[in-house]
Amino acid sequence: MVIFGTAGQGLKQFIELGTAFLLSALIGLEREVRRKSAGLRTYTVVGTTAALFLLVSKYGLTDVLTPGVVVLDPSRVAAQIVTGIGFIGAGLIFVREDRVNGLTTAATIWLVTGVGMACGAGLLLLAAAVTAAYFVIAFLFQAHTTPPRITRLHGARQRHYPRLA
């Protein structure tokens, strides 16, 4: 069913984009409630944008295709989305002494990107299942239920840094 009479702008694409928006917002809301560094806006924008990029790569470039001369490979855009989010995720991770902060936030940003990409590819059931699995993990392994620090068998690791005069 085409709403606007233009290829790639039908009800299906709006449902895919809307589903990406809702699923990403659900995950973002959970992170917002837990007062994490990235929240509702960040996760919603990342997931919805990933779906949009995939939809554009599937339908938005059809006017430049020439049969037998110009071909379209939507997987190229998908690969670049993953690469770009990898850089964003790396920027969210901070290491200070023996503590690593932001690892779960970076991983969840990556997950929301995958959910958005799945929606953009038309895999709505898969995206919903992954979102449900995230909530199982998020509530099953809450931070306050894990031990604050796991001790090493041979004591704490010592780091020696050279002193600069």
Automatic annotation (TrEMBL):
TM region(s), chain numbering: 40-57, 77-95, 107-140
Pfam families: MgtC (PF02308)
Domain MgtC/SapB/SrpB/YhiD N-terminal, chain residue ranges per copy: 17-142
GO cellular component annotations of the record: plasma membrane
Main location: membrane
Record keywords: Cell membrane, Membrane, Transmembrane, Transmembrane helix
Membrane topology: Multi-pass membrane protein
Source organism superkingdom: Bacteria
Subcellular location: Cell membrane
InterPro entries xrefs: MgtC/SapB/SrpB/YhiD_fam, MgtC_SapB_SrpB_YhiD_N
Protein family: Belongs to the MgtC/SapB family.
Protein name: Mg2+ transporter-C (MgtC) family protein
Source species: Tunturiibacter gelidiferens
